[in-house]
């Protein structure tokens, strides 16, 4: 089993200065690969370019290995961050399970990979900040300060942030899809959902989340920055992420409504999110669908299995746990049942202890976890890679925030592979679950299909 390794060793030097906010696309395009973006509803937007340090790991102990490597990286630092949001953080993610990155399109993705950006633009409530980080032999204070001065000049020459309308007018169009292939035919889907339902009715399983993948050939080059901007406008209250492995040929990205866990000090916030319906054509229809979802036994059962399990998994770490009221979370393309859960820890912990304990929640795995995972591996004819796995950041104090990487895809210049899944319980109907998968492709598919599109891939 590979151990986590840092390609450089501490100490770390980090310098930050305030800058005028550039246009997102201009900043994204000027940053070197590997690029990272991270944005959460209650967090700053971060754009990272290059790697001052890269932590990778694989195997069953990948969470512990990354925790150790991050702790070592942050052990000794000479940091002038200027603002909290620009403090050194490593950004990245994990594979769904061991061996999940073996097949296409996951070749360039390790089973765990976190990057301390070399150059980082942070856009926070208190302004825009530019940071240069260096680790090991590069960690010379005057070299870092010189590099920061050069980066400040480079960023000062970029276009300023436009109004949303002006930015939209200047963006490349959506690429369009010339051809698409599914991993799973409707017939194969009916069979595997039917088999899962039988196992649930026999008492062998309680729930399993089965997913599909959709590979789309793009009719034009994938417009990376424009896609991220459009997702930000359409999904402002989702976690949005972009991770490039080495080489920058492809990237894993998405806009997920599901937080896995955030830890600040001893305060934990997490969500149970499961149970889905569509959006209505009118506000009244939306309300009707939301009420139907709240009253629907199958969806409430599917949701409660997640909420209960998240509470149970936090229990060993917590001095107290409280769950909010179950309600409907409305997104641009779907509505979900949502229960916010908070806890106070009984001792200091690293965020990765919680990530490891919670992943995979039954919103993306199932119950009992081992049997559900075995069912997923036997049933799904593709590798999940980082789909439905934890993505997020870690800081020097062991705080962090992780989201569940759903509503996601891997994209290269002319191809994208999209992933989406559904929770199967005893009264799941294969055709309704099929339709729900198609709804869950929408956030990414909407950004790929051409604007005039007769090229829809998911009907
Ligand atoms: C597994 C996915 O969604 C999960 C999150 C919210 C609702 C879900 C559901 O209702 O089935 C899924 O558990 C996905 O979008 O790929």
UniProtKB/TrEMBL annotation:
Occurrences of domain Chorismate-utilising enzyme C-terminal (ranges): 186-440
Keyword Isomerase: yes
GO MF annotations in UniProt: isochorismate synthase activity
Known catalytic reactions: chorismate = isochorismate
Biological process annotations from GO: L-tryptophan biosynthetic process
Record-listed E.C. numbers: 5.4.4.2
Region (Disordered): 162-186
Keyword set, alphabetical order: Isomerase
Segment forming the signal sequence: none
The keyword Isomerase appears for this protein: yes
Domain of life: Archaea
Family listed: Belongs to the isochorismate synthase family.
Name the UniProt record assigns to this protein: isochorismate synthase
Annotated organism of origin: Halorubrum distributum JCM 9100
Lineage: Archaea, Methanobacteriati, Methanobacteriota, Stenosarchaea group, Halobacteria
């Amino acid at each position: 089993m590979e151990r986590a390794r840092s390609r450089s060793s501490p100490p770390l030097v980090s310098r930050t200065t305030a800058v005028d906010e550039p246009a997102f696309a201009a900043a994204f395009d000027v940053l070197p690969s590997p690029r990272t973006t991270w944005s959460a509803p209650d967090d700053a937007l971060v754009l990272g370019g290059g790697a001052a340090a890269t932590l990778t790991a694989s195997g069953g102990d990948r969470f512990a290995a990354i925790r150790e490597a991050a702790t070592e990286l942050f052990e000794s630092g000479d940091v002038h961050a200027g603002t909290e949001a620009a403090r050194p953080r490593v950004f990245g993610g994990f594979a769904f399970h061991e061996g999940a990155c073996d097949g296409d399109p996951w070749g360039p993705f390790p089973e765990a990979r976190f990057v301390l950006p070399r150059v980082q633009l942070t856009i926070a409530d208190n302004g825009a900040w530019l940071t240069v980080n260096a680790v090991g032999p590069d960690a010379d204070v005057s070299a870092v300060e010189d590099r920061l001065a050069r980066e400040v000049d480079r960023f000062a020459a970029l276009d300023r942030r436009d109004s949303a309308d002006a930015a939209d007018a200047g963006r490349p169009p959506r690429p369009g899809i010339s051809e698409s292939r599914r991993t799973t035919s409707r017939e194969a889907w009916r069979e595997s959902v039917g088999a899962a339902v039988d196992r649930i009715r026999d008492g062998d399983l309680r729930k399993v989340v089965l997913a599909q993948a959709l590979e789309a050939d793009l009719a034009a080059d994938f417009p990376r920055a424009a896609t991220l901007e459009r997702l930000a406008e359409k999904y402002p209250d989702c976690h949005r992420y972009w991770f490039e492995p080495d080489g920058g040929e492809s990237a894993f990205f998405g806009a997920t409504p599901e937080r896995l866990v955030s830890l600040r000090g001893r305060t934990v916030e997490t969500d149970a999110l499961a149970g889905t319906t569509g959006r209505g054509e009118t506000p009244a229809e939306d309300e009707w669908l939301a009420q139907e979802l709240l009253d629907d036994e199958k969806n409430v059962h599917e949701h409660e299995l997640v909420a209960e399990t998240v509470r149970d998994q936090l229990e060993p770490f917590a001095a107290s746990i409280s769950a909010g009221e179950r309600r409907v979370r409305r997104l641009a393309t779907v509505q979900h049942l949502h229960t916010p859960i908070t806890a106070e820890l009984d001792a200091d912990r690293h965020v990765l202890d919680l990530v490891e304990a919670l992943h995979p929640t039954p919103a993306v795995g199932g119950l009992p976890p081992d049997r559900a995972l075995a069912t997923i591996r036997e049933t799904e004819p593709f590798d999940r890679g980082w789909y439905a796995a934890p993505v997020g950041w870690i800081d020097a104090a062991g705080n962090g925030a992780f989201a569940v990487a759903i509503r996601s895809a891997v994209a290269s210049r002319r191809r994208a592979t999209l992933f989406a899944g559904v929770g199967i319980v005893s009264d799941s109907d294969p055709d309704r679950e099929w339709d729900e998968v198609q709804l869950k492709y929408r956030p990414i598919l909407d950004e790929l299909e051409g604007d005039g599109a007769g090229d829809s891939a998911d009907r």
